[in-house]
Every structure is written in C-alpha cells, then in structure tokens.
Amino acid sequence: MTERSYRQFCPVAMAAEILCSRWTVVLLRELVAGSTRFNDLRRGAPRMSPALLSQRLKDLEAAGVVRRHPLPGEPGVFEYRLTESGRELEAVVDAFGIWGQRWVSSELSLQHLDVSLLMWDMRRNLDPTPLPKRRCVVQFRYPEQAPADRSFWLVVDPDGQVDLCSVDPGFDVDLYVTVDLRTMTAIWMGLDTVRSAVAAQKMILTGDRGLAADMQTWLGLSPFARERKLAS
Fold first, then answer.
1. Cβ neighbours around 159 below 10 Å, total
2. Does residue 187 or residue 2 have the better pLDDT?
3. Which residues, in sequence order, are CB contacts of 20 under 8 Å at separation 6+?
4. pTM over 0.85
5. Where are the alpha helices (DSSP H) in the chain?
6. Per-residue pLDDT, 73
7. Measured by CB atoms within 10 angstroms of the end CB, which terminus of the chain is less buried, N or C?
8. Short-list 181, 179, 214, CA closest to 198
9. What is the mean pLDDT of residues 50-63?
10. Is the four-CA dihedral 61, 161, 128, 144 of positive or negative sign?
C-alpha cells in the first residue's frame, strides 16, 4: 500500500495509506458485518474483482488488520478474521456510514442501485424474532430487472438461520413481495416505509397476512437507517 505514499509521519496520513485505497473501507465493512469467507466477502462487494479482493486481503493481512485462518478439513479454504487492530476499525466504519447517511443526498445514494448487494444486506440484517417458528419463505420480485436479477428468495429456518437464494429453492412461498429496486432500496435505507410504499402501490404484498403486516419489523433495515438526513 506504499505505491502512493503520502511520505508524512502524521498518523492520519499513515492510516490513510492502509485504509484509503479503493474498496478497502467497503471490504472492512463486510468484515465488520461478520463475513469471513472469500465468496461471502465477494457477495458484499459484487463489483469488486476477485483479483482485487485477494490483493486487498493480502494488504490488510500485511498491515496486521486481518489474519487468515485455514479451515480444518477444507484444504486451501481460509477464513479472514479481524485482529485486535482490525476490530478497532469498527468505529471508523460506523462513522463512515453515519456520515454518509446524514450528509450524502438521497438522490445521489439512489443512483447506485445494486440488487445483489441489497438482498445480501437484507439477508444478514433480517430479524427472525417476529416470524412464526417454522420455515418461512419470502420471494422478492423486481419486475424491471433483467431476468437473472428479477427474483430472490429469503428462506428463514425455524432456528432463525437465514439463507438467500437466487434460484428457486423449491419450497412453498409464504409471502410474495413485488417492488421496484429503487423503492426497496429506499425502504432498506430508512428513506421510505413498507406502509407508505404499499399505500402508493409501489409495493405489492401477496400471501401470509401476518408476515405482510410485520414486514417493517422483520426486514431489519440498514444499520444506519435511523440516522436523520441532514443533506439538503
């Protein structure tokens, strides 16, 4: 990470040499959120090439921010976990997110829609507590998207484990959510609500009435959704 060194002894400059290369803070966001395997990290940064992801992980490992752990019984497979110094960066990642939610305009944020990232975030933040103690399947349908990105399934097991499928898992669907990507992203970010989207006919909920009624609760939302927008 020294190819663009600031050549300053200042701790801010030295930290920036490690943390401010492209995609590094986004990768740290994924590590802080609990992703540890290479493919899971890729799902949280789908526009990042595998080669660049591998390089950034090596950079963070060299800086002592990440430690690579081999998985027993799985040759060549590793988990990437934050070290003590890496865990201290959680506050930095949170500060980035809070600042972005407060000061980046909604219109600018909603110009960068990504259905794969949205569904991955929804999977890991879903709150299974209000759901029935059985397997629940929710299918999200985005009619305006290309066929490969049009349907996703969230499968919640009775133990609260949540899986995301981009191919029909073959289970009966309890709730169908038909919505455009911009509206769903706005709800996830706390810029809109399920109730207002349904009232405006931007979202259609079909199926289990209990799941539909509680959707705003179990959806979980972005960790930064509660931050009030301050940007004009």
1. 8
2. 187
3. none
4. yes
5. 11-19, 24-32, 38-44, 50-62, 84-88, 90-103, 106-109, 115-125, 181-188, 194-199, 209-213, 215-218
6. 86
7. C
8. 179
9. 97
10. positive
What is the crossing angle of helices 24-32 and 90-103, to 10°?
110
What token pair was written down for 6?
């600031």
What is the structure's pLDDT at 62?
96
Position of tokens 């879903």? 126
Q: What is the pLDDT of residues 69-128, one digit of tens each?
A: 999 888 888 999 999 999 999 999 999 999 999 999 999 989 999 999 999 999 999 999
* Nearest in space to 15 (alpha carbons), one of 51, 87, 65, 67: 65
Does the CA dihedral 40-45-50-52 come out positive or negative?
Answer: negative
